[in-house]
Structure formats: structure tokens, C-alpha cells
Amino acid sequence: MGWAKTKELLSAHKRFEVDGANIAREFIRSNLGNLATADDWNERRIQQSWYAIALHTTFTITPEAEPEVALTSLGIGADFFGPQYTPGGIKNVITVEEYHAVTKLFPRVGFNYEGLKGVMCGLCREKPETTYDNFVGFFGRKWGTDGKGTGKDEFAAAMDEASFATVSEKLFEYLVELDKSAA
Prior knowledge:
Layout lengths: L15 H15 L12 H12 L12 H15 L14 H10 L7 H14 L8 H9 L8 H11 L1 H19 L1
């Protein structure tokens, strides 16, 4: 959902995972009357769904989260990367046999690295500030904002400037000066 091509659904300044989680939460809330199990969808469960979607790409944290969050992330990771997917050292997320059974029912037609690269570089182009602190930014750093190298150096420089190491260095320098001015 965060990869939606309908621009009206997406924010200008939120990560794609948050856009997707917000879209899903609104969809659930607006369709509760149509669900046979609407009584089971309290605000906690709706928020849990939000966390599962918003955090699904944080592969080093989600295995430690609530089961619904962990399972969502592991399932999406297995969908993307197959039997060799081992987040945080977790082995056998999906076996070769299970992978073949799933792809027989749901073929990966057109779901390949070039497609992923196109979406990720598009996010780097359209919402760069949302990509600097996560895996998406590495696509812009490697492939540019068009997937062919355009803007690669500029993107890398902006990503470096926005890095936690750079930002925290500047903020600590500012605080040192601020503390001096109070003395």
C-alpha cells in the first residue's frame, strides 16, 4: 500500500511503511461494518495491525516483537527473498518445498530485483528525506534516483549529511555553544 501509485493515498513526508500502515488502519476502520468479525477489531487490534505493517521492514527488530508483528515481517521477508532469507540469524523461515508450494499458487511474475529497484529509487526521487535513514536510501546511493545512476552522487551526499552520525555531531556542537552562552 505504501507503494501505491495513487498519489492521493500517500503522504509527502512519511516512510512508505507508515503510509501503508495508515492506509490499512483507515481501511479497517471504515470497513468494520462489513466484517463478520467486527467485534474482534478493537482499537488495540487495529493498532497492532498498524505496527505489523509499519515495522515490517525492520528485520532486526520485528523477530522480537509481538507474534503478529514478527509473523508479518517474516512472511514478507520470505516472500521477497525465499528460502535463503535469515533475518537476525533465524534459519528456515521458509523451506524450499514451502517456497515452491507458495509460488505455484502465487507466481512471482514480474516480481524481481529490477522492479524492486525501480520502486525504491522512485521513493528516493519522490520522498528522499524518508529514505536516508533506512534500507531504501541505499538504493538511491547505489543506483541514483532513476535506477540508472542519475543523481547518485548528490543523493549520497544528502544521505551522508542526514545520517545520525552527522546530525548528532552538529547538534552536540550546538549544545556545547549553547551551554557556553548560558555560563
